[in-house]
Amino acid sequence: MSELDDLLRVTWGRAADGGAPTEAEAALGDGWAVGPAVNGGAVMAVAAAALGEAFAGAGHPDLLTWSAFFLSPTAPGPVHLQVETLRSGRTVSTGQVLVLQDDGGGRRERARVTATLADLGVMAEPAHRAPAAPTMPPPEACVPARRDGSPLAAAITILDRLDVRVDPATAGFAAGRPTGRGELRAWLRLADGHEPDVAVLPLAVDCLMPVAFDLGVAGWAPTFELTGQVLGRPAPGWLQVRLHADTVAGGVYVEDADVWDSTGRLVARSRQLAGIRVPEGGLPPRAG
């Protein structure tokens, strides 16, 4: 069993009325954390896994589109999932997952994920039109993102689960030289060799360092809401991820993510609204 399989393992409770269960438990280990909180991509992946199991019997096991609201930081440890079917149709099914956690004073909602699922072999084939993957050096010529790379990275335990190679053209932030363009490009795969699949994609769009780093603003950039789409089942091999931010307003910014598989097919994309702490003097100017 891979580390991702272990993360996505959901234990269902027994339905009181004899129907399908709607309550489940999962464990978000401290190996998927960014500082004191579990990475949002891991939280979304677990919620999507629960919905995939709930709708598998209807022939809709694959995540198609989803929206996640992050209401409070998820601490490493057990979570309770409340799963609700909103609609089960012939081609798609839609449901909602409340991710709850005991904080000592009762269950507190950490995230709420609403998603539509389908059979991607039917809904996402063939691919007709999509942007091409960016031109990047091969993974071995890119900059590995490791926990020993900086004091900030030391607390990002999820880096032990991932193999991330950042395009040198967008890695200047690591040496204190952000470009100011608001773009990061990287190769991505799971460190334990688990080949990419649909279950990886909610993690892939939200597991890299915030693109705010390339805007010259380091530190935690909490996600308020993220909307994503799955556009195909990824082929085995490396994923290419491009993050881009062109809009910053007050204490928030918009981050877009695109994910291509090893064949160059766009397999997922997302847009999120996240927090940012812009220095008093404003954003640093663009390099060059």
UniProtKB/TrEMBL annotation:
Pfam families, alphabetized: 4HBT_3 (PF13622), 4HBT_3C (PF20789)
Domain Acyl-CoA thioesterase-like C-terminal stretches: 139-274
Entry superkingdom: Bacteria
Annotated ranges, domain Acyl-CoA thioesterase-like N-terminal HotDog: 30-117
InterPro entries in alphabetical order: ACOT8-like_C (IPR049450), Acyl-CoA_hotdog (IPR042171), HotDog_dom_sf (IPR029069), Sec_Metab_Biosynth-Assoc (IPR052389), TesB_ACOT8-like_N (IPR049449)
Protein name, entry field: Acyl-CoA thioesterase
